[in-house]
Amino acid sequence: MMRLRPYKPCDGDKIAGWLTDERTFAMWSAYRYQYPMTGAQFNERMNSANDNPNEFMMTALDRNGDPVGYFLLRNADYESNSIHIGFIVVNSNVRGIGYGTQMLTLAKKYCFDVLGMNRITLGVYDINQRARKCYEKIGFKPYAEENADFEFQGERWRVIEMECIAGVN
C-alpha cells in the first residue's frame, strides 16, 4: 500500500540521495537545480511552492511510512482545470517494482478527485523509455514534442509532452 502526503523538510535529504548520478539528475531536472542535489535545495523549493497557490510538492510513502517517491504538481489552472506533474522520482533502491505506477495512479486520483482537474500533463525525454512506459500504462498519451532539445554530454534528448484526460484511459 502506498500513500501520498505533502512534502516535509525532513524528506529533502532522502530524496536528494536518490539522484546521485549526473545523468539521472539531468533527466530529472534539466539542470533547473544545481548538481549534486541537496536536501537544502528541496527545502528552498518548498518555500517557494508554499508561496504559490498553484504548486504542491508531494511525497509518496510505502506501507511503513518511508518516503519512496516524490513529484511536484505545478501550473494549476483552475479555470481550465489542468495541472502539470513534474520532477517525478522514485527511490533508486526500489525502482522497477511498480512504485512509480502506484505513485502516479494516486497522483492522478488526487488531481482529478480532490483538485477537480480534467487534464494532467507531464513531460518525459525520449530516451527515458522506462518512465514513458510507466506513464502510458496509467493512461498518459503523447500530444506534442518540443522542438527544443536538451543536451547532456553530447547526447540530444527531445521532450515528449504527455497528457491524461479525466474519464479517458
Give Rg in angstroms. 15 Å
Uncertain parts: none
Instruction: Tell me the number of helical segments per DSSP (H or I, 4 or more residues long).
Output: 5
Count of separate structural domains: 1
Give the helix proportion (percent range): 25-40%
Overall number of strands: 7
Spatially, the strands of the biggest sheet line up as 1-2-3-4-5-7-6
Structure class = alpha+beta
CATH topology: Aminopeptidase
Average pLDDT number: 95
Q: Can you characterise this structure?
A:
Strands 1-2-3-4-5-7-6 form a seven-stranded mixed beta sheet, sandwiched between helices. The radius of gyration is 15 Å and the shape is globular. The chain is built from five helices and seven strands. It is 30% helix and 36% strand. The two termini are 22 Å apart. The chain has a single domain (3-165), classed as Aminopeptidase. The chain has helices at 12-16, 22-29, 39-50, 99-114, 129-137; strands at residues 3-6, 56-61, 67-77, 82-90, 119-125, 141-152, 155-165. The protein has 169 residues and is an alpha+beta fold.
